[in-house]
Amino acid sequence: MITEQQIHQFHTFGFLVLKNMLNEKELKIVNEEFDKGLAKKDKGELIAGARVQLNWSNLEPHSSFTASLLEDQRFYGIAQQLWGEDVVGKNSQANHYAGNRSPWHPDVGPNVHGCKFVFYLSPVDADSGALRVIPGSHRPEFSDRIKKVRLKDNDPGPPEDPGLAVNEVPFCSCDSQPGDVVLFNYLLWHASWHGSDDRRMVSLQYWKNPKTPEEKEAMAAMASGFVKRSHEKLTVVQPYPEFWLSNPENNPLRAQWIEWLREWGFIESIPV
Amino acid sequence: MQMLNEQQVTFFETFGFIILRKVFSEEELAKMNDEFETSLKIIQRERPDNEPPKHFNWSNLGPETPFLSLLPEDTRICETAEQLFSKNVVAVSSNSNRRVGDTRWHTDQSHPHSYGLKFAAYLQPLNSDNGAFRVIPGSHKQPFNDTLKHIEMDNPEITVPYYSCDSAPGDIIIFNFATWHSSWGGSFDRRMCTVDFYKNPETPEEVEGTYDQVIVDEKVYANIRASGSGFHPHWLANANNSPRRQRWIDWLRKYGFVKSEAA
Questions:
Q1: How many other CB atoms are found less than 10 A from the CB of residue B38?
Q2: What's the average model confidence in pLDDT over B229-257?
Q3: Which of B226, B118, B228 has the alpha carbon at shortest distance from B173?
Q4: Shortest CB distance from A139 goes to which of B10, B136, B144?
Q5: Are B7 and A150 in contact (CB under 8 A)?
Q6: What number is the average pLDDT over the span A121-127?
Q7: Which residues of chain A lie closer than 8 angstroms to B139, CB-CB?
Q8: pLDDT tens digits, one per residue of A149-198
Q9: pLDDT, tens digit, 9 for 90 and up, residues A10-62
Q10: Which candidate, A126, A122, A131, places its Cα nearest to that of A27?
Q11: In chain B, fewer beta carbons within 10 Å around the N or the C end?
C-alpha cells in the first residue's frame, strides 16, 4: 500500500517509483516464466519500428505466477487506492525490446483512466533504456501542448528540422533495479532511450471503472479498438487467453473482472 | 532575423524553458568572468573576514561591468525575449549571482498576473550533481503550477521529479518566471549572470501584478543585493541614446521600479 503523500504525488506527477516490490525468489520465477513466454512467442508477431518489440500476455498456464501478480494485493491494493475499490485488472503482459528506444507516447487517449505497474528484469538508467517520463504530462492541458511539439519519431519534419529525438525532450528518468516497480498513469507521456537489444519488462495494468458519461464513452471506444487491434495484430482469436478466462481456481475477483471485461466488449468470441 | 525557430518557440511555450548552446564565445566568456571576479572581490573586501560563504547578488548596470551592462541590449538576448513574449517586453535587470549550496524549489513569479522571463548563464560547467538548474517541465502553466504549491517539495519523503539543465559556460538557459526550478549539490561558489525581462501589462490584473512586482523586487533585493541600486545612474543616463533602452527606462519609471531620486 502507498501513503497519502504518495497518492498525492502520483496524481500530481503521474507516476511513482516503488522500490523493492518483488523479492529475489519472486524475480527468479518471473524470469523463468519470461523465458518460457519468449520461447513460445511467434517471432513473426514482432512489432517493428524503433521498439522492435514482442509482447504477450502472461495470463497463460506457463506464467501462472506472473499472471497472479495482477490479483496480488501489493499491486491491486495500490490500484484500488488510486482508482477506487472497483478498479479492474486488465492484463499482465511481458515485453521484449530489441530496439534502442521507445518513442514518446501516452498509452491511451483522453478520459480513459488507469495505471500500469512496470518492472524491468535488469538494472536500467537514463542511458540504458529506463522508462523516462514527462512529469505532470498526464494532465490533458499539458498533454495537448506536447502534441504540438514536433517529435522526430512520431511526426518527422523536413530533414533540416526533423523534430526532437527521444533524448531531446525534457524528462525524468525512472532508474530501477530488478524488484523495483514504476507505476504510472496511462495518460502520462513516456519513452525510453539507449536500451539494450535484450530489454525485458513486465507490466500489470488496471482500469478505473468509468463513472462519468465521458469516461464511459471513452471506455466503449477503447473496447472496440482493443478488439479490432487484437484481431489485426495477433493470430489468436481472442485477446484474453482461454486459460485465464476459465478461471480454474474460481477466484471471485477474477470472475468479477471477467464479467466486467465481457460487459464492455473486451472479450469477444470470434468464429475461426 | 529571428533568434529561435518555430520549434524552439513551441518548446519554450510547452515546457517553460529552453537551453541555447554556445551563445557566448570564449572571448565574451573571458570578459564575463573578469567582470564577475572584479565585482565579487570588491563586495568581499567589504565583508568581515570570518563571514561564511554567502549568496551575493549585484547589479551589472554600472560602468565597472561594461560587457555585462550591455547584455540586456544584446540582440541575441533582447530579440529572443521579444520573440518569446512580445515586442513590448522590458529588460529590468542584468545581475550577477554568487550562489552558495542548494536553492529550494520555487518560481520567480510573485503575482499570478505578473509575467516575465529570465536568461541565466552559468560560468562553470554544471550537471545535476553539482548545482545545475533543475526544472519541472511544463510547470509554468495552470493548473499544474498551482498544484505544485500543495506539494511539500522540501519533505525528504517526497521525490520531486525534475529535468536537469546541464550546461557549459557559454550556454544560456531561458525560463519563464512561473516555471518551478531549483538547484542541488552546488558548490559554495556557483556563478551565474542573469538578465530579466518583464512582460508589458495589458490587462488590469497584469497592471496590478506589475505594481506588486515593484514591492516584491524591493523586498527581495533588500535581502540579497550585495551593493547599490539595481539601476545605476550610468545606465539610466543612456549615453548612447538607445531607443530600446529609453523605452525600458520610461517604463521602469512609470511603474515605480526606478524612483525619481535614483535618476
A1: 12
A2: 93
A3: B118
A4: B144
A5: yes
A6: 95
A7: 136
A8: 999 988 888 888 889 999 999 999 999 999 999 999 999 999 999 988 99
A9: 999 999 999 999 999 999 999 999 999 999 988 877 777 888 888 899 999 99
A10: A122
A11: N
Tell me: pLDDT of B53 over 80: no
pTM of the model: 0.92
Quick check: B111 pLDDT over 60? yes
How far is B72 from B68, CA to CA, in rounded Å?
A: 8
User: What confidence score (pLDDT) does residue A236 get?
Assistant: 37
In the numeric block, the cell 545606465 is attached to: B235
**Closest chain A CA to residue B155:** A5
Q: How far is A1 from chain B (nearest CA, A)?
A: 15
* C-alpha A233: how far from chain center: 17
The partner residue sitting opposite B141, judged by closest CB among A3, A141, A164, is A141
Is B137 within 8 Å of A145 when comparing Cβ atoms? no
| A66 C-beta neighbours (distance < 10 Å), count | 26
Q: Which of the four pLDDT bands, split at 50, 70 and 90, describes residue B259?
A: confident
Tell me the torsion sign for CA atoms A224, A229, A235, A240: negative
pLDDT of residue B263: 43
**ipTM summary value:** 0.90
- Measured between CA atoms, the residue of chain A closest to residue B157 is A5
* Closest-CA distance of chain B to residue A99, Å: 24
Q: Is the four-CA dihedral B146, B150, B156, B161 of positive or negative sign? A: negative
Q: Does A163 touch chain B (CB under 8 A)?
A: yes
Inspect the interface and report whether the beta carbons of A170 and B135 lie closer than 8 Å.
yes
Residues in chain B, total: 263
CB of A120 closer than 8 Å to CB of A200: yes
**Cα B26 from chain centre:** 22
DSSP state at residue B48: -
Antiparallel, parallel or unpaired: β A15-18 and A88-97: unpaired
Asked if the model's pLDDT at residue A129 lies above 80, the reply is yes
Cα separation, A219 vs A208, in Å, equals: 10
Tell me if A57 sits within 8 A of A238, measured CB to CB: no
Q: Which three cell numbers stand for residue A200?
A: 525485458
Kind and range of the H or E run holding B202? none
What angle (nearest 5°) sits at the alpha carbon of residue A70, between those of residues A68 and A74? 100
Residues on chain B touching A172 (C-beta within 8 angstroms): 161-163
Select the residue of B7, B10, B139 nearest A136 (Cβ to Cβ): B139
Tell me the C-alpha distance between B155 and A46, whole Å: 45
* Pick from B14, B136, B157: CB nearest A135: B136
Q: What is the three-state SS of A154-176?
A: CCCCCCCCCCECHHHCCCEEECE
B60/chain A closest Cα distance in angstroms: 31
